[in-house]
Structures are given as structure tokens and as C-alpha cells.
Amino acid sequence: EIVLTQSPGTLSLSPGERATLSCRASQSVSSGYLAWYQQKPGQAPRLLIYGASSRATGIPDRFSGSGSGTDFTLTISRLEPEDFAVYYCQQYGSSPLTFGGGTKVEIK
Amino acid sequence: QVQLVESGGGLVKPGGSLRLSCAASGFTFSDYYMTWIRQAPRKGLEWVSYISSTATTIYHADSVKGRFTISRDNAKNSLYLQMNSLRAEDTAVYYCASGQNIFQHWGQGTLVTVSS
Asked: What pLDDT, in 10s, does the model give residues B46-105?
């Protein structure tokens, strides 16, 4: 099973700042099959990025994904108030599909 | 628009059973794989089970294999999760989601609490 380790655990930033979230896999994620989700309290996760770098429908272009192999990054270019949330990465290149432990982006 | 509505959660004693349901609307349910994902309180996400569009392919996570069974009724646009021999560690919000690998649409979740 591929273990995904997200860092940092918590990121304290101000609106307008850039957020860089990391997701590291215990083994290579085949074909870049990595997704990112955003989750707010009391809500279901929302798909942001799939295929490491493709934005899902309706996702603003301030969200971008990059990476390959074992190292992936989600970047939020300029934080909006609604972006403060928990972010999860998920690999679907091998079974079982697995999620990272999450990074909380909080207001500084 | 796509809507997924889970039901059937609640409080159950260890060793007990529950059946979760997920009612789907707004898309052609019979064309899609469906998946159950859970989230323990204040924890991350864990894939539980998925089922192919015609129910010919089914997978369960090792943590639930032999205790949980996923099924579907395409005539009723519904997905199910039969959960037996429940343990405290099964306590979580259970989400249904459309798809097999990436999940664009999720339900609001139903809380299962396993406690004596």
C-alpha cells in the first residue's frame, strides 16, 4: 500500500499569501495518478486537482498542482478567505487507493 | 444536478450491524462505479469499498473485508453498505461518492458510532 505523507501539518498564512502544500509518496505513483481535495468543517471533500495537475470543473486557476513520481505539490497562488480549510492528497495509481493525513491551512 | 444522499447511520453496539444507503439522482447511476469512503472523527479519509456499474467488480479494504458488503440496485438508483461485526474503530462519517478512482461528487455523509 502506498503511504502518502503530507507536510506541513498546519500552515498559518494571511489572505493574499501563497500556500505551498507537499505530498510525498512511499513509492512512485504510477502515471501521476494523484488528486487533491479541499474539505471545510462539516462538509464533504471537494475535488480540486486530478492527474497531478489538471483542475477539476469549476476550480479557480489560483489552485495548481505539480509533481511526479513520489513528490507532489499543491499551490494556492493567493489565498482567498474561503480557501482556509484542510487539504488532502489521494493516489489512485495502485490498489488500495490511499489518502494523505491532510494539511490544515489556517488564518494567521 | 448530481445529488447523493446517505442514510442509515446511527449508534450501534460492538458486534452489531447496520445497513447504509445512498440515494443517487441527477446522473445516470447505472453508468458509474460507486465508492464508500469513511472519515473517523477528527481524522483523515479512508477508502472502504467500490462496486462497478454492473456489480461485477467489487473491492473492499482489508480493514473491512469479510465484515462489510457493498451492493447496488440500479433500478432504484441506490448504493448500499451492509456492515456486520462492527467495531469501535469503524466509528466514522461514511460518504458515498461517484466514481472508482477520483471523486467529483460526494454525499453529505452519515455518522456511524460503534459504542457500548
From this structure: 999 999 999 999 999 999 999 999 999 999 999 999 999 999 999 999 999 999 999 999
Distance CA B116, CA B9 (A): 16
Whole-number Å distance between alpha carbons of B41 and B60: 21
- 3-class secondary-structure state, position A82: helix
If contacts are CB pairs under 8 Å, which of residues 51-90 in chain A contact chain B?
56-57, 88, 90
B24-51 pLDDT, tens digit per residue, is 999 999 999 999 999 999 899 999 999 9
Q: Which long-range contacts (CB under 8 A, 24 or more apart) does B70-74 make?
A: B70/B34, B70/B36, B72/B34, B74/B29, B74/B30
For residue B44, give the nearest of A56, A96, A102 by CB distance.
A102
Q: What is the DSSP letter of A9?
A: S
Count of CB pairs separated by less than 8 Å, A with B: 43
Q: Flag whether residue A33 sits within 8 Å of chain B, measured between CB atoms.
A: yes
Helix/strand/coil for B80: strand
